Amino acid sequence: MKLFSTSSRGGRIGSIAAIATVVALAATGCAATNGGDSGDGGGDSAGTIAFLPKQLNNPYTDVVLGGGEEGAAAIGYDSEVLGPLEASASAQIPFIEQATQQGTKVIVIAANDPDAVGPALQTAREAGAKIVAFDSDTNPDYRDIFISQVVAKDVALIQLEIISEQIGGSGEIAILSATATATNQNEWIKFMEEELESNPDYADIKLVAKVYGDDDADKSFQETQGLLSSYPDLAGIISPTTVGIAAAAKYLSTSDYKGKVALTGLGLPNEMREFVKDGTVQEFALWDPAQLGYVAAFAGKALVDGTITGAEGDTFDAGDMGEITVGANGVAIVGPPTRFNADNIDEYDF
Ligand code: RAM
Question: What pTM did the predictor assign?
Fold first, then answer.
């Protein structure tokens, strides 16, 4: 079943409840459990899945967690959301320790840094927890499986294709990323750099700068401003982060650069709609983030049940998303990216 469109999944109701939980948590930066039982669970619960995103106060995270909580409920697990307010490298460690002390069966984590979280995850595993990385991988030594929404190289390629189309295949471009340590961001940027070097279609495109907005809207806004003043010939910006692209669009939309400097990257349709409609942005890409959380919950169950170990070729049931096969290096891919533009953006609600 395809979960992409808003109308196709009643479970979006579950997402709304989850968002309310996360918003409440954002005020305190701590954790809450949905579903009654905590720890290994009592009553009818199979146990708890702890979701530890890069940061709580990120609209992308809210959508991912909505899918995660829906997935956990579908397999009879309680879900707990915990994590820091800022996406810094070490900020997740105390939350991993907290989940470990609670005897959480599954920790689902989007790593702010592939190695900083390693020792804490090792301890969690020694205590019996299964580790599912999603969105942004840990070093593979520290997790059982990585749920990646899209093949990493495809995420890079679609953004290059779009920017190239928009700048006529020639000119200076810059990348506005999230944090400098984020595994997902750095992998996508690496593939973009390799493609720019090797693909003759991009011979006339020059990457002049990489800047980091730390998935903080204000910093991303300022970095955009800085790029435009430092590089007067800039033709386009790629921002492979939902926070970055929305902040850059906000800056461009009221500046003289609107419609002149192209902007693309990875954005949430609901955050980008106004900028597509006012002509600031022509086209950007993403996937349905809820699917990522949903599949991660099912992967956790399969690991706990022992039906998979995260080895290449393992398969697991992912409910409405069907059967998922684990690929090389313990990476399971959920689905392809989609382009959003004026023609289709109103069909999406996330
Ligand atoms: C931001 C985060 C996240 C990334 C999305 C596309 O919200 O950096 O990790 O996957 O953008």
Answer: 0.90
